[in-house]
Amino acid sequence: MPRLNLDHLDISDFELRTKARSLGFGRRLYYAKGNALWLKTQISHRSDSLISSPHAELGWQHELDFYQAHASSGDLNFFLPHQIIQQLFKINHEQFEQALILVDAPAHFQIMPHQQSITQIRQHLLQAVEPLICLQELGYLHADLKQEHFVNNQGRVCLLDFEHVQILHQNDLHELNATPRYMAPELFQGQAKSLQSEVYALGVIFYEWLSGQRLQATDYLDWAFLHCQRLKVELPQHLQAFQGLLEEMLSKQKQHRLADFQAVKDYLMTEIE
Q: Distance between CA 158 and CA 152 in Å, rounded?
């Protein structure tokens, strides 16, 4: 993407889109409609504002570090076109020190499967798996997979939000930060995230998209009961071709689950017609 200078951007064009909960942590997400860009930033504890969270700041810095470490690698296909700003700037009287600017891209899963053939659906799922294979081959887990973290940039699926990204095989060094909707059963039992728990999270994303229904639970314990005991894959008759895939991605026993994202791709390529 073309380099941008915040001094030359029309700050009045920036519309605050931060979720209410994140506002209290000092996170700010702005959308610049005129430029079709997103600006993500974080209030620092060093600023005059009383609104800040050490945890949110750590996640924000972790994401920036990940972008800076790998963005120069042209063969990585999971990043959106982006720019990192490292200069003092103000929006709406709040001061920031760093920003991540991303191009606007439509959600990958906004297309409804009932409008597509089995072949088209398989291709849509394969597109979502590709950036995860790339991330896996680089030696990382995304560790916060959600449907909204998949976007389509000119036919290429990219991932958003790398605040929780972690190195494979060093999961014991990370505290568990996970959204119960996407948590594999073993995570409720205190185990660390792994490629198999990532496959499970992707299975939830696929299942909700294919079924057209979101999983429902009332609280953390109810989510635990759902994932550990109650969840049963039931797809409409015209989508039965994907039943076996989801059952292997959503197996309650980690050792019976598809081992990684390459295995998910192989299943899609060889088992679904």
A: 6
